[in-house]
Amino acid sequence: MLKTEFPKIGIRPTIDGRRRGIRESLEEQTMQMAKSAAELIESTLKYPDGTPVKTVIADTTIGGVHEAAMCKAKFDKENVCGTLTVTPCWCYGSETMDMSKDLPHAIWGFNGTERPGAVYLAAVLAAHTQKGIPAFGIYGEDVQDADDTSIPEDVKEKIIRYAKAAYAVGIMHNKAYLSIGNVAMGIGGSIADADFFQDYLGMRNEYVDMSEIVRRWDEKIYDEKEFKKALAWAKEYTPVGKDVYNEDDPNKFTDEEKEEQLEKCVKMYMIAKDLMDGNTTLADLGFKEESEGHYAIAAGFQGQRQWTDHFPNGDYMETMMNSQYDWNGIHAPHVFATENDSLNGTTMLFNYLLTNTPQIFADVRTFWSADAIERVSGTKLTGLAANGFLHLSNSGAQTVDATGQEKIDGKPAIKPFYDLTEDEAKANLDKTRWVPANIGYFRGGGFSSNYVTEGGPDGMPVTMARVNLVKGVGPELQIAEGYAVDLPENVFNVVNDRTDPGWPSTFFVPKLTGKGAFKSVYDVMNNWGANHGAISYGHIGADLITLASILRIPVNMHNVDEDKIFRPRSWASLGTENLEAADFNACKAFGPLYD
């Protein structure tokens, strides 16, 4: 994981500025609201490295423009990535608001009858909308007593949802997406769009040719001592298995050639980390420039075909980059896209920053209806899969953390690295085979990870998402919450044998709503915007919607309950009946966050 200074949420306690009794009577209550909000955020959320997130509170309550400016100056020094304004009372809206256009803002107005916090909330939100600086409005449903310092559950939920998204925005800002190679097999998502990254995400694009890996092989621009340790670990924990594809192929590789390929695959993994993060050891070897890396928070590898027609494929590297365990023990994963699909890599990054969990990169490969399954297997599906499922699979480049061996409350899960046990990490690898690549696809050899995601009796809750670019519109986000499910053994065997039996598989059932793109499982597949999807543990659709609204990326397809949707109040000014249309109109009206 890229070493970086993490951003903070800035908390702004605003107050009625009238002295000689009014302001003085509100000072303690107002500052206590700020402290309560800070405690809630810091005790609930963690940065990707597992440490508690940080907040910073203004030095004084804010009763006017001078104190607002002093607060802004402090926040600029403290690397603030979003603001939360809190108040129990009336304040002077445009005099106390934060005018920063490139930061997300939220305002919590206390619902109490003694002082009109709700009136200020409405007034300042109107000012935000009028000035084109969208802000989230937070207002508890139930009236509280003036001396009640607790935070209602509905307010907590909105504060945390906003804070998660604001931290994600801040962590992405000024980082890079690194393309190792270029466009893979004409896939549109691997045409990295610099304007999208710059205007919407505040990121830059970095590029290296795949020949950089060969240069580092040949010139030994890697840690030789670590390589020996890594290779020994790989032979023990990721041993090459049976060659299921190429048994009868006269061009199949010898065991010696496979051994050489494994060495190259391990080096590729090491080099990819160095390219993203940098590595001070390289400076000691005389490679100062290479030691600095590309400050990349996400990356992708082209692979096919210019690389894979001659060299071992990138599956081993990509799997291990997206996983949380290797010869250095348990660690944070990277975000690393197959086929340099930068749009799927972006979606993986969104998911990761909202959950701190490793991501599944997969082809949205096949829709299997219940009738089709019964026809080919003789088995009628029941339970979650009764209406059919989507087979998510790629060539073996997805995180091994998705085997289902990690458990929460005894159920299959995908955990952040800081909650992962050594036994779970090893169990993931025990459940994973490493299959020599199909040389029909990959002439240069290599190895694919192979496992099936275990869903358990209740299914593993997951969310599949995808950013797509639409000419004339810009980016759009698709979201499908659902479950990874288990199949009866005979059904699995039929399905697996009809595709690629050496690749990893996740069987996904989206939640259906009976309307739009979620009328049926088929409709989800039929409306999906690309051949890839990013799959995260948990039902995180509401968090993704909030994040997308901050970045001004409209959501064109989702199955999130309406009462969970949390967007800036300005969105209501563009429509309250058709929320999808209002989202598109708002994103167009306010424009990208960094444009």
TrEMBL record:
<dbReference type="GO" id="GO:0005737">
    <property type="term" value="C:cytoplasm"/>
</dbReference>
<feature type="binding site">
    <location>
        <position position="532"/>
    </location>
    <ligand>
        <name>Mn(2+)</name>
    </ligand>
</feature>
<keyword id="KW-0479">Metal-binding</keyword>
<dbReference type="GO" id="GO:0030145">
    <property type="term" value="F:manganese ion binding"/>
</dbReference>
<protein>
    <recommendedName>
        <fullName>L-fucose isomerase</fullName>
        <ecNumber>5.3.1.25</ecNumber>
    </recommendedName>
</protein>
<dbReference type="InterPro" id="IPR009015">
    <property type="entry name" value="Fucose_isomerase_N/cen_sf"/>
</dbReference>
<keyword id="KW-0464">Manganese</keyword>
<comment type="function">
    <text>Converts the aldose L-fucose into the corresponding ketose L-fuculose.</text>
</comment>
<dbReference type="Pfam" id="PF02952">
    <property type="entry name" value="Fucose_iso_C"/>
</dbReference>
<dbReference type="InterPro" id="IPR004216">
    <property type="entry name" value="Fuc/Ara_isomerase_C"/>
</dbReference>
<feature type="domain" description="L-fucose isomerase N-terminal-1">
    <location>
        <begin position="7"/>
        <end position="174"/>
    </location>
</feature>
<dbReference type="GO" id="GO:0042355">
    <property type="term" value="P:L-fucose catabolic process"/>
</dbReference>
<keyword id="KW-0413">Isomerase</keyword>
<comment type="pathway">
    <text>Carbohydrate degradation; L-fucose degradation; L-lactaldehyde and glycerone phosphate from L-fucose: step 1/3.</text>
</comment>
<dbReference type="InterPro" id="IPR015888">
    <property type="entry name" value="Fuc_isomerase_C"/>
</dbReference>
<keyword id="KW-0963">Cytoplasm</keyword>
<dbReference type="GO" id="GO:0019571">
    <property type="term" value="P:D-arabinose catabolic process"/>
</dbReference>
<dbReference type="Pfam" id="PF07881">
    <property type="entry name" value="Fucose_iso_N1"/>
</dbReference>
<dbReference type="InterPro" id="IPR012889">
    <property type="entry name" value="Fucose_isomerase_N2"/>
</dbReference>
<keyword id="KW-0294">Fucose metabolism</keyword>
<feature type="binding site">
    <location>
        <position position="363"/>
    </location>
    <ligand>
        <name>Mn(2+)</name>
    </ligand>
</feature>
<dbReference type="InterPro" id="IPR012888">
    <property type="entry name" value="Fucose_iso_N1"/>
</dbReference>
<feature type="active site" description="Proton acceptor">
    <location>
        <position position="363"/>
    </location>
</feature>
<comment type="similarity">
    <text>Belongs to the L-fucose isomerase family.</text>
</comment>
<dbReference type="Pfam" id="PF07882">
    <property type="entry name" value="Fucose_iso_N2"/>
</dbReference>
<dbReference type="InterPro" id="IPR038393">
    <property type="entry name" value="Fuc_iso_dom3_sf"/>
</dbReference>
<feature type="domain" description="L-fucose isomerase C-terminal">
    <location>
        <begin position="393"/>
        <end position="558"/>
    </location>
</feature>
<dbReference type="GO" id="GO:0008736">
    <property type="term" value="F:L-fucose isomerase activity"/>
</dbReference>
<dbReference type="InterPro" id="IPR038392">
    <property type="entry name" value="Fucose_isomerase_dom2_sf"/>
</dbReference>
<feature type="binding site">
    <location>
        <position position="339"/>
    </location>
    <ligand>
        <name>Mn(2+)</name>
    </ligand>
</feature>
<dbReference type="InterPro" id="IPR005763">
    <property type="entry name" value="Fucose_isomerase"/>
</dbReference>
<feature type="domain" description="L-fucose isomerase N-terminal-2">
    <location>
        <begin position="175"/>
        <end position="356"/>
    </location>
</feature>
<keyword id="KW-0119">Carbohydrate metabolism</keyword>
<dbReference type="InterPro" id="IPR038391">
    <property type="entry name" value="Fucose_iso_dom1_sf"/>
</dbReference>
<feature type="active site" description="Proton acceptor">
    <location>
        <position position="339"/>
    </location>
</feature>
<dbReference type="GO" id="GO:0008790">
    <property type="term" value="F:arabinose isomerase activity"/>
</dbReference>
